[in-house]
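Let us practice reading a record.
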Amino acid sequence: MTPPAPRWPITVQRPVLWGDMDALGHVNNTVYFRWFEEARIALLDAVGLRADRAATGTGPILATSACRFRVPLTHPDTVTVHVGVAHIGRTSFTLIYEVHSGAHGALAAEGDSVVVHFDYAAGATAPLPEATRRALEGLRAPGDAQGT
């Protein structure tokens, strides 16, 4: 019997739109970053980081983002985007992503990003609150996902 696929803590599905394609006839590279963003926002909401900004003046800010493209995608298709936490530091955490194509039945892209906890008034990084740390721990990416 085949073991079950690893479970990701956050998953979003999106249709590949006709307008997502570029002049070369495949999904433009910038669209993958938009898909990462949608999954990342769902994760940030799950740990309450966006909601805390109004009360504390601190919140998330994106420091880096990278994508490795595996399979060119086209319309029509539906992608499943997974995101999970790979590393938690003192003031930042690393997320990893996978984009799976329904039409191809394959991994289409993978990526990572670093999100920094930021004090907007001071213009500087801020330590992650302990409650946020605990919440992030509960959203770890599967152990065999890339980046871990």
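A brief commentary: Strands lie at 10-16, 58-69, 77-88, 92-101, 106-119, 124-125.
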